[in-house]
């Protein structure tokens, strides 16, 4: 059992989680001897892949997990690609980066919980649970055990629309996550579980290089200036206003530079203040 749990854990953790409610519905969720019901819109209950003990493969992008938490709440887990593009023609294709027994990252802040179902929608989910049950079903009331009395015998592939989310889920907007470890290494993972690791030694090396560049920007004695008077705005932030104005004057007007060299500090400051007013 632990082996099977680890097999399913990777892909289920990376899926789109939604908890739907039946608080405002007279019909409540039912339970079966297959507590985690596996549904795929392109695998009918009579197909070979749905015969006990088989289930639609978890790697297929159209596979969804239905797990009733109680009478009023049900957890739906779907693959990201099928949630974004729910097409039956692609339901049997393997999802992106399909794998098992791999580490993954899950954030419970991404669980989408904003949808209340109608009685017809709850009965439709109960219909799937009942059709995929091995032998037994249970409910809080006898009427919930007969969803056919409300919805008849719906088309299996059209039921998939009930499981499609509404609103703007955070998980589908962008699922990239980044983690920084104690050794300063950084692990990034996108919504499909594709990892990239930046080692700590590389992060520390880049930080040291940025620190040296900052020291050079502050302490460099001789700067090469563009015609506008300054090489970059980075040096603006670390140079006094008088020095900025004076160097602009030197770059723009050689006569002004000669005048500045021929006068004392007080004269240079007066010229700098006058140029500053002109520039502003």
What does this molecule look like?
This protein is of the alpha+beta class and 280 residues long. The chain folds into three domains: 2-173, no CATH class; 176-219, no CATH class; 223-279, no CATH class. It contains ten helices and ten strands. A five-stranded mixed beta sheet has the order 3-4-5-1-6. A three-stranded antiparallel beta sheet has the order 8-9-10. Strand 9 (186-189) and strand 10 (195-198) form a beta hairpin. Helix 8 (241-252) packs across helix 9 and helix 8 (241-252) packs across helix 10. The radius of gyration is 33 Å and the shape is elongated. The chain starts with a helix and ends with a helix.
DSSP strand content: 15-25%
Number of domains in the coordinates?
3
Low-pLDDT sequence parts:
218-260
Report how far the terminal alpha carbons are from each other.
75 Å
Largest sheet: 5 strands, mixed
Derived structural class = alpha+beta
Q: What's the overall geometry?
A: elongated
The succession of helices and strands, N to C, reads HEEEEEHEHEHHEEEHHHHH
Number of DSSP-assigned strands? 10
Helical content band: 25-40%
Gyration radius from CA atoms, angstroms: 33 Å
Overall mean pLDDT stands at 79
Number of helices: 10
Strand order of the largest sheet: 3-4-5-1-6
């Amino acid at each position: 059992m632990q082996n099977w749990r680890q097999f399913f854990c990777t892909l289920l953790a990376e899926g789109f989680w939604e908890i739907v409610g039946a608080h405002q519905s007279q019909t409540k969720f039912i339970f079966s001897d297959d507590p985690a019901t596996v549904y795929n819109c392109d695998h009918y209950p009579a197909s070979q892949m749905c015969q006990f003990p088989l289930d639609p493969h978890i790697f297929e992008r159209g596979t969804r997990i239905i797990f009733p938490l109680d009478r009023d709440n049900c957890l739906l887990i779907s693959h990201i690609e099928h949630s974004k593009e729910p097409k039956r023609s692609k339901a049997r294709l393997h999802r992106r980066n399909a794998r098992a027994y791999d580490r993954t990252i899950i954030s419970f802040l991404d669980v989408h919980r904003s949808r209340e179902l109608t009685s017809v929608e709850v009965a439709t989910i109960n219909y799937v649970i009942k059709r995929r049950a091995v032998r037994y079903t249970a409910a809080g009331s006898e009427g919930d055990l007969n969803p056919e009395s409300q919805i008849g015998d719906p088309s299996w592939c059209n039921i998939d629309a009930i499981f499609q989310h509404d609103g703007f889920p955070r998980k589908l907007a962008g699922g990239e996550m980044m983690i920084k470890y104690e050794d300063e290494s950084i692990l990034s993972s996108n919504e499909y579980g594709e990892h990239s690791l930046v080692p700590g030694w590389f992060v520390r090396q880049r930080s040291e290089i940025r620190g040296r560049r900052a020291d050079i920007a502050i302490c460099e004695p001789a700067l090469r200036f563009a015609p506008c008077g300054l090489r970059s705005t980075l040096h603006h932030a670390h140079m006094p206003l008088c020095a900025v104005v004076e160097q602009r004057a030197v770059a723009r007007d050689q006569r002004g530079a000669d005048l500045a060299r021929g006068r004392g500090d007080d004269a240079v400051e007066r010229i700098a203040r006058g140029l500053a007013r002109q520039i502003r």
